[in-house]
Amino acid sequence: MFPHSIALLTDFGLADGYVGTIEGVIACINPQIRTIHLSHDIPPQNVAAASFCLANCYDYLPSRTVYLAIVDPEVGSSRRGIAVETDRGYLVAPDNGLLTGVLQKSPAIEAVELTNREYWRAPQPSSTFHGRDIFASVAAHLANGIPIELLGQSIDPDSLKKLELQKIETTTTGIKGSIQYIDRFGNLITNIPAKTIEGKSWCVRIKDSVISQVDTYSSLDRGSPLALISSSGWLEIAINSGSASSSLDLSWGDTIELIWI
Amino acid sequence: MFPHSIALLTDFGLADGYVGTIEGVIACINPQIRTIHLSHDIPPQNVAAASFCLANCYDYLPSRTVYLAIVDPEVGSSRRGIAVETDRGYLVAPDNGLLTGVLQKSPAIEAVELTNREYWRAPQPSSTFHGRDIFASVAAHLANGIPIELLGQSIDPDSLKKLELQKIETTTTGIKGSIQYIDRFGNLITNIPAKTIEGKSWCVRIKDSVISQVDTYSSLDRGSPLALISSSGWLEIAINSGSASSSLDLSWGDTIELIWI
Amino acid sequence: MFPHSIALLTDFGLADGYVGTIEGVIACINPQIRTIHLSHDIPPQNVAAASFCLANCYDYLPSRTVYLAIVDPEVGSSRRGIAVETDRGYLVAPDNGLLTGVLQKSPAIEAVELTNREYWRAPQPSSTFHGRDIFASVAAHLANGIPIELLGQSIDPDSLKKLELQKIETTTTGIKGSIQYIDRFGNLITNIPAKTIEGKSWCVRIKDSVISQVDTYSSLDRGSPLALISSSGWLEIAINSGSASSSLDLSWGDTIELIWI
After folding, report:
1. Fewer C-beta neighbours within 10 Å, C or N terminus of chain C?
2. Helix or strand or coil: residue A21?
3. CB contacts, 8 Å: A214 with chain B
4. Which residues of B touch C21 (CB under 8 A)?
5. pTM above threshold 0.90
6. Mean pLDDT, to the nearest integer, of A215-220?
């Protein structure tokens, strides 16, 4: 059973034709495949944001999807290009930690380094756009049913680069965490997992304010800060019909504190 | 005859993977369906802008399209989720007025509240992302040919929430209206309908300036403000090769006046 | 053999539903065709940027693709609408120079002015949105196999409007060029072609700084300006993990100088 979809996630933006070029390379090899665009507006070169975003989407796509994920600040250096098989599909990416979040959910069954130039678009790739010259082509061939072993030399899944994510810290009164992602609405998604706090009573302290636990965005008046479980399974701080990031002046990596009550 | 397309309109933005997640849910249920992305950059929580934009697209899509429209500031509250059948297709949305513009063009034949959890993705949906857990799944099942009656309890189409749009006012010298939408070019689209002013002579007064009636953007020199009939059928104020919104310092809801001459 | 894809490039943005409307018009005529979105965020009315971006993508899409390219500041004026056949596919656009870059790569075999209203969506098109009322419909009919001759009156390919691009200048010490495109990463793409400088030794002088020639973005430390051959075949100035445009305070059209060493 072949994959029916290629899901793309990059930091290429949509303005410059880079994504269209990638899709063109795919269409040349596999004219029928469905493409699902997860995001192309990952903050430039932010591998951690890409890892987070990819892992959030991952549970909701069809089984056997090929994921093509490219945020690649070290393109052209000696970092490896890789393809990974999991129980749920295939992943094609630079080996820079971008797959950290997904592989926590779904461990690698097999991994190869993309050394077989036969499946590249250009045997002499440009030194700045491996997305076009290597990764897109490899993903399209996987979607065509080419076995992963043909794409290159087998590597130990344990050797894949992992991001070191900021850890949460248990204190006498609660949990210290940090903001790991800010979405388009200005919602602040922390690194405190839902399973640690579900069914318990708590509030959040940020600087000198205390923010109450609620069930949904509209539980408090418009403009009120609130804390809840995000749809992706983390403690989230938001504002009903507003931007928590702007209003609370908080950014990526900032510290927050949960207090048991 | 089944629908061939699902058309999506949201305020999710394209950065965070929310749209890709929605499309993943659809692809799990209906791997072949074509998706048409109308907009995902509706200003956050702006239900009126969503209603306007959806109604503008509506005349141009294939008959029997399923429209999945989600701008949902009250997600998780008691506002209803609905599916509506018209003579031209199906609409799936929160019941918050988002369908006002479309239903003016094409009245509801049948409406249901989305109470049948069998067609939800998650019988226990998250309280913040019904787009993923309810609406996308329901839209995909409709596109698969599931009859609308199976999706939940029938409701009176007259009970659907309608937006109260700003009305135009007829004066002794013309018409007072307001700006109901600003597009990416900074074009100001008013709430004065084309049919009221077509074939007549008029100008527009804004603050102390008078703006002339023309046929198209390039009728006047670059940088000149002008007034014409928009492609969506409203009085529009624009600037040849410029942004009327910035140059004239006008924003959503601001008043404008048409004067008969 | 019919085209399998329509590739779209516009300055419509993704917020206002204009692209979705275009895709709706196409889907009404050709429900099965694949659409590839190259860019919809060309800077408003910037025909030169559109020409550059289209030409970059052009080498990577399937043969016999129909390209629908619309950046159209003179919409509604007497500028012509055109369809052009090349050895690699079809081009549909306003005749304003937008096709300059593509036609340099792949000369016109045949060209017509879009005068046959039978293939328009609206025989009386709006004066501001020919993309919807003429171009999208014509592109979809071409993709359906309608011969280009049926779309209107044959015209001399030499009569198609061409952009006058800024030329490079050879000096006693090197080459004077200018910046022809800035991408989302802030990379500065000049008008000095790769073939003029490949395999030679040079540096770049901008204002009072000298920028070294390297192979790839990560060849120097993060934050260092560098010069290399872009993936699209031009001299490019970039900064490892940063924006050259912001850091060097350079913009579209600014002069740069390459010095042989």
Report:
1. N
2. helix
3. none
4. 38, 56-57, 60-61
5. yes
6. 86
